[in-house]
Amino acid sequence: MSKFKTGDRVCLIEYPTCTGTIISLRNGGKIVLVRMDSSGVISYYPESLELIEESKVEPKFKAGDRIQLIAYPSSIGTVLKVSEDGVLARISMDDLGEYEYFTTVIQLLEDQSKEPEEYKYYKYSYKGIKLDPYRILDIYKITCPAQQHAIKKLLRAGNSVKELKQDITEVIDTLKRKLEMLEEEDSDNP
To answer: Residues 78-124: pLDDT tens digits?
Structure first.
């Protein structure tokens, strides 16, 4: 009879930081299949494994945590859900969509209360996608520089360096110039 059962959290005796969850016992418990936290499913002899006490296992992440991939620190996302055993996390990556990652390949962002300095003006997001003026222009396929300038100014009007009235005046001036350009083009092609 094996000292382990399906669902037990274990670590390798020789490498205690290598942890996983038992998914199956084979040959009467002589072979143990373990879903390792960082490398998939591997079979082990029971003598090479040690049971991790439940009190030692604490979930590292929870829904809503801001994380980054350890190997790619610029890949940032939000934890949507963590598996019961804490091994897998469903992440909404800011620039890639939703993926599942082993929790051993992600880490909490150092200071979750702070947005990175370069994004402080673009704090809006929808389904993990940052909604800055450039994303909106791209979605609507707006390529005219005058329209781009006017839309960006309107989206940020009164929330930047200038007063609301000055931002709106500049938008009107930009759009008047665009109208002039359209009239010039029409007069060139009678």
So the answer is: 999 888 777 788 999 887 788 888 777 888 887 544 445 555 556 67
Distance CA 133, CA 118 (A): 14
**Which residues, at least 6 apart from 12, have a Cβ–Cβ distance to it below 8 Å?**
18, 44, 48, 49, 50
Helix, strand, coil shares, percent, the chain, to 5: 30, 30, 40
Structure tokens that stand for 57 in this block: 């296992």
H/E run at residue 58: none
Number of helical H runs and strand E runs in the chain: 3, 12
Reduced to 3 states (helix: H, G, I; strand: E, B; else coil), residue 138 is helix
Spatial neighbors of 129 by CB under 8 A, at least 6 apart, are 94, 95, 135
Look at residue 131 in the predicted model and tell me its pLDDT: 77
Mean pLDDT of the chain: 81
- The neighbour count for residue 103, using CB atoms within 10 Å, is 21
Tokens of 8: 């037990």
The model's pLDDT over 18-34, given as tens digits with 9 standing for 90+, comes to 888 889 998 888 899 99
